[in-house]
Each structure stands twice: as structure tokens, then as C-alpha cells.
Amino acid sequence: MQPALHNLFDQFLVYMQSGGFVMWPLFVLVIVLWYALGYRFHAIKRGSQKSVRVLIRKFDSGKREIPRGLIDGAIVDALKIVNEGYRGTIGRELIEDAFFSYYQELKKYRKTVNTIVMVSPLIGLLGTVAGMIETFDSLGSMTLYSQGGGIAGGISQALFTTQLGLVVAVPGLVVGRLIDRRSKIMELELEQIKDIVCSEEEGK
Amino acid sequence: MKRIVLILMMAVLSLSAATETELQRAYAKEIAFLKAQKEMLQQRLSQVKKEDAARVSSAKKEIASLQNDVLVKTQTSDRLGEQLFRSQQNAENISDDTALLESVALQGQSSLAPYGIKLAIDKNDYPATLNQLFAETLKLGRNLSSVNVTEGSFYLKDGTEQKGKLVKVGNIATYGVAEGASGVLVPAGGDKLKLWDAPASAATATALAAGQMPASLEIFVYENVSKEVEDKADKGVMDVIESGGIIGWVIVVMGLFALLLVVLRGFFLSGAASKTLPVAKETLVELQSKGVEATLNFLKSRKGAAARVMKATVRNLDRDREHVEDIVAEAIMHESERLDRYGSAIMVVAAVAPLLGLLGTVTGMIATFDIITEFGTGDPKLLSGGISIALVTTELGLIVAIPLLLLGNMLNGWAERIKDGMEQSALHLINEYNKQK
């Protein structure tokens, strides 16, 4: 197991080196990207899969007390404000105030993910261009098969960076879009909570 | 008259009848003669036929033999043609080989010339020339790969010439040993040598001169006596930009300008961001403890975007809700002018830089094709120049665009968060005030 791991690490290092100088920035971007995606995935956890209306009734009747996710927390906050006696327009404003951090949480790292997805193929392209320059330089100086460079080195650099750029971008794009959709739905649900809580209380 | 003629004819007829037997005999004689004639003619005919057949067969034989002859001769001519072709080829090969040998000999001559060895090229006896070349080269190789001690002179550090022994280590380094000073020598130009500033090498030099090989060799390696070893110049950043041409410079200048804007914007935003929350909290505390007037006075003493938004909010706290929200939104819009400053410029540069890179690429390719039309595709060096210029501009464009995209988006997100924070603080303030009321 240990030598196998060691071997894998060596292979990884060789891969990184054959791609040239853009590989490490790309690698850092991958880590940031997946940290951001993980954070977003964690943030869009919904306490329970039941509909907002059912959840509000449950929390209101005291059947559930500990919030388990973002929507649960928002419902608890909203009910607290309503139960303090603020209702109508003022209550609505107060709830909006209280929900600010939830909106912020849903939006957090959205731009980061999109930026990295946009930039990483460009970095791959940069590596490709650098590799092609090396190739043509070695054509010019006639050092076609020199160590650590030459035509083959340049071309492998060109290909590896494009590959890594795409490997970074495509899963990031897909997962990022999925999370975006979930977070949009949850924003709508927060609006729904506001509507339901205020209108029910006004109706009483 | 007619009667007379008829009578005459009758008389003739009667006469002939009288001589019938004589006539018959004459006829028989005649027939016998004719038969003999006929036989003779038939004999002659068969003889002629025989002769003809004999002549035809002999002619046929002759034709066959002639055809045979022709065949043999064609074959011979083919063979001769082939031989001719082969010998022509041989002649060509030989002349090629001769040219090759001559060029080898010339090459050898010019390679050996720097070492003072003259090679006589005998055009009629290339093997001898080649033998001589190999012998000389081998001798030179042995000579160059060994340590030689010769008498000579070298220059000291103060410029005086010193006579002494020169210890040549192959063709790559020389040590000088003299009474006054000894040590490793470096090329001083014009085939002259001078002492290098390495006192530790004196022991090495004397040991080598005495024929010993010291354990560690203090050495200064040169290419030849008049030239130091030149490291292949690494391409600096400036060289790379230079090879991108005018467009390369435009991209770099734009990138530096945008980087300056990024720094300035980051400076603004960090100022605004660090103030927003504390100001909002203090304002809330002031408002709850001292009232509207005192809060306004407190805010007047503060500076910055957050303080101005708070001031606008506090001044209009007593108006109806929608109105206050409009005022808050307007105040933030007013401040966003400052918060968004340079944001679009940075993104424009980030968008334009790759396009400029593409422009450079196209320009470089045009130059390459111009070279191809002028010189053809024979020399890859000529082509690779233009192509690498084309790629350098793309590279520069991407190098400028990628960080600007990252930083620009980060700054935009930051500005967005600051504005959200201001709005939220202002609304929070209104809510708290209304709650108190």
C-alpha cells in the first residue's frame, strides 16, 4: 500500500512537471474551486425535504425545535420575530433583515466558482501556447530532442495543460450549475417563508 | 455468175474427196507430233515446279536464320545498353563520392587549421588524404585529452608578462607555473592567457607541472584560448516582450495600467469594507442611547461611504418606510459610483488583452507567410521565428487577461458585498428605530 501510494505521488509530480509553469497555479485553483463547491454544497443543505408550509406548521406547533438546515433555521427565525408580536409590514421588514445572512450564505463563493470555471481553460490555453513556443524555439535553435524541452517536451506541455484546464473546468461547471439551481430554489423558498408567516399572522 | 462459182466449188469438192486417204495420213502424222510436244511440255512443267519448291524452302530457311540473327543482336544491344547505364551510374557515384571526399577533406582541413595542422589535399589520391586526416585527428585528439607542459608566457594580474611553464589540460584549461606566481589561467583575448584570481590553484598548477594529478582540481574551463565558455543566454522577461513586437508592448503596458487600477480599487474597497460594520454598529448604539440629533452629529464627524449612507438614513428615519428605502437605495447608488470606480476599466482590459494577443498572432502569421513567399519553406529557422512571435503575443495576452479576470471578478464581488452590507445595515437601523417607537 505504502509503495503504491508513493508511486502515485511520483507519477503526479512527473505529470505536474511535464506541464510546465502553469500546472501549479491550476492545481491551486482546483483546490480553491472544490473548497468553494464543498462550502456551497454544505450551505444549500435543506433541513428536511418536506414543503415549506408543512415545516412552518410543525415548528409553529412546537413539534420540532432544533433547526437542522438553512430553511429550518430561517423558519425558526421568522417565527421568533412573529411571536414577538411584530407583524404586518414591520414584521416583514424585520424578517427580511434577519434573512440577510441566509441570502449572503447562499450567494457566497458563487462568483468564485464561476470565475475559476471561466479562467482555468484560459490557463490551460496559456500553457499550450507556452508549450508551442518551446516547440518552435527548439525548431529554431535545432535542439530538437534536448533534455527537459525540445519538440516532444513542448508538445507534451501543450497537451497536459489543456487537459488539466478542462479537467478542472468541466466538473466545476456541471457541479456549480447544479448547486446554483438548488440555491435559486432555496432563495424562492425563503421568499415563500416570508409570505406564509406574515400572511398567516395577519389573517389571525 | 453465181452458177459458175457454185459449179467451181463442186469441182473442188469432188477433187478433195479424191485425195481422202492422203489427208488421213497427214493428220495421223500431225497428231503424233503434237502428242510428243505435249509430253515434253508436261515434263518441263513438273521440273519447273520442283525447282520452285526447292527455292521457296531455301528462302524460308534463310528467313529463319536471319530472324535468329536479329534476335541475338537485339539481346546483345540490350545487354550493352544496360552495361552502359550501369557504368554511367558508376561514373556518377564516383563523381559524387569524389565530391563527398573532397568536402570531407576540406572540412578536416578547416577543422584542423586552428590547431596549426596543415592538411595537403591530393586530388588524385583521396585515400592517402583521408588517412592523413585520420592520423592527424587522432594525434590531435590524444594531444588534446592529455596534460601537456610547454614553455610559454602569461600575464599576471598587474599586467606584467611572466615567462614560465604552461600546463595545458586538454583544450579546456591551462595552468601557469613561474617563479613569481602560479595558478590557473584564463583567456585574455588574442590567444593570450592571464592569471585568474584564485590563490588556491597555485598548488594544483605546481602539482600538475610536476606530473602529479592532485585529488581536487581547481579549474577554469574555457572554450578555446581566445574565448571563454559562454553560457547560452536565458531569455529574460524583457526579451520575451521584445519578441512580441509593438503589440506585445501594448499588451504589457495595458496590463500594468490595469494592475495599477486593481491596486487602487483594492485600496478603496478595503477602506470602505473595514468601516462599514463598525460605523453601522456605532450608529445603532448612538441612536438607541442618545437619539436622532446626537447620532447625526456623531455621523457628521465621521467620513467615508458607510457614514454618508447612515447619515442619509438617520436624517429621514421619520418618513414613511418606502420613502426611506428609496433614500437608502439612492444613497448607496451615489456611493457605488466610487465603489465601482475602475471596475469596468479592469474588465475591459481583461477582455481586450486576449484579443490583442490574437491580433499579434495574426500579424505574426502574416509575417511568416511573407517569409514563406520570399524564401520558401526550406529553412525551419526562418519560419519558427515568425511563429514564435505570433505565439508570444497570445501568451502575453493570456498572462495579462487571466489574473485581471480573477482579480477583477474578486473585486466586483467584494464591492457587491460591501453594498449589500450597507443596505442591510441601513435597513437594520430603520427596523430597530421602528421597533423602539
Automatic annotation (TrEMBL), chain A:
The record's section on Pfam families has: MotA_ExbB (PF01618)
Keyword Chloroplast recorded: no
Tell me if Endoplasmic reticulum is a UniProt keyword of this record. no
Using the record's annotation, list all stretches that form the MotA/TolQ/ExbB proton channel domain.
87-191
- Extract the InterPro entries matched here: ExbB/TolQ_transport, MotA_ExbB_proton_chnl
Per the record, membrane topology reads:
Multi-pass membrane protein
Q: What is this protein called?
A: MotA/TolQ/ExbB proton channel family protein
Q: Which organism is it from?
A: Sulfurimonas diazotrophicus
TrEMBL record, chain B:
Provide the protein's localization. Answer: Cell inner membrane; Membrane
> Which parts form a coiled-coil structure per UniProt?
24-69
Q: How does it sit in the membrane?
A: Multi-pass membrane protein
| Annotated source species | Sulfurimonas diazotrophicus
Name the InterPro entries on file: ExbB/TolQ_transport, MotA_ExbB_proton_chnl
Which Pfam family, just one, is annotated for this protein? MotA_ExbB
**Keyword Repressor listed:** no
Can you name this protein? Answer: MotA/TolQ/ExbB proton channel family protein
| Membrane-spanning segments | 246-268, 342-367, 387-407
